[in-house]
Fold:
Amino acid sequence: MKFVLVGPAARGGDSTLQAVRRAAEAGEIEYLGELDADGLRREYALAHVLLFPSVGEGMPRVMLEAGFAGLCPVAYDIPANKDLVRPGGGMLVPTGDLEGLAAAVAGLTADRDRITANARAFQRHVVAEFGMEAFVRRMDGIVASLRPDRAADGEGPTAAAAAPGIRPATPADLPAVVAAHSAAFPGFFLTRMGPRFLGAYYRMVLESPEGILLVAESAGAVAGFVAGIARPAAFYRAMMRRPWALGFPAMLRLVTRPRLLLDVAERVCRLGSSGHPQGHRGPSQARAKLASLAVLPSQRRLGLGRQLVAAFVAEAGLRQVAEVRLTTDAVDNQATHAFYESLGFSRSSDVLGTADRPLTEYTITTATSGTGAPPVERAA
Ligand SMILES: CC(C)(COP(=O)(O)OP(=O)(O)OC[C@H]1O[C@@H](n2cnc3c(N)ncnc32)[C@H](O)[C@@H]1OP(=O)(O)O)[C@@H](O)C(=O)NCCC(=O)NCCS
Structure:
């Protein structure tokens, strides 16, 4: 194992410089000082691990460089690093735990395959989040969010056109929608019903006049989708008139997975209790339901989820629906709660669902409520 220190150690003060010189003279490290871009590229290409013991960073550029160069990072768990290093994509140890850093490096040197696997995962994540394509998409999203008037100006047939890359789904998108759903909700009820059932379910949403199914495209492929119903009661009535459309694929699945019957029973109860009462509301008080939202894991934190939700809320507004609501797991689901809250949704109930699976309801008003405000705003 060889340690190479790069950078102007003098910045740490005289004592740091002396300590670095002593370590270099004792042969513990090789100290290269400050390098130009070519020198840095060369050293990154030679290294396998980035040991990054910094305790104060806003956006750690060294970590990003190491990610692009394919190194495995070992660093402190300061907030900036936590955003970059995911499980299996590098090692984080508690801030200030020098022995932990040493143990992490020692553990890695005994296992070259682990270094490679972590380095590859880190590189994939950094490229997806901070590569040029991601940067351009973020800029596009910012520009689009500054132009809430686009849909109203008639630049497109639906609100989805207000966001670049967001468009209404077509039947050809259904396999990709099913794949994105399965990747985002592993083990969930609808996923366990199997791809045929999911395909039939989303086809029903697509074909229903009450359904809203929008997809986000990235590099020509579906990277995520949002699905829901503008007027749930009318949708459920139509569903009951064509039960075989969902029933046959569902029945096929139930024959092979009988335990799903219990879940089906529970879902039917929930449908009956939360869907139908809305049928008594007048059109202007109707509440759209945002039923599912998913972005492929490799495409997350690029703004696609935000754009999909904004397009969904705008679409509901264009259809004269005053409010959009959704439910999500109440526990162990902080990231999703933070996501919807950052989009301006308000928590309207914490007492839905079952004792086993409590749900939180969120709502947001659409542009039809007469505020004249853009349909979805960032709270922060
Ligand atoms: C929830 C989900 C759709 C978000 O999609 P996304 O494209 O990653 O979201 P965005 O990039 O638009 O994020 C918008 C904001 O939400 C918040 N946010 C999103 N994911 C977050 C996370 N994991 N932790 C904390 N905040 C998060 C952030 O404020 C983020 O803005 P920022 O990146 O500028 O900080 C996506 O993570 C997903 O598919 N998850 C699995 C399925 C799911 O939980 N669906 C929602 C329940 S129906």
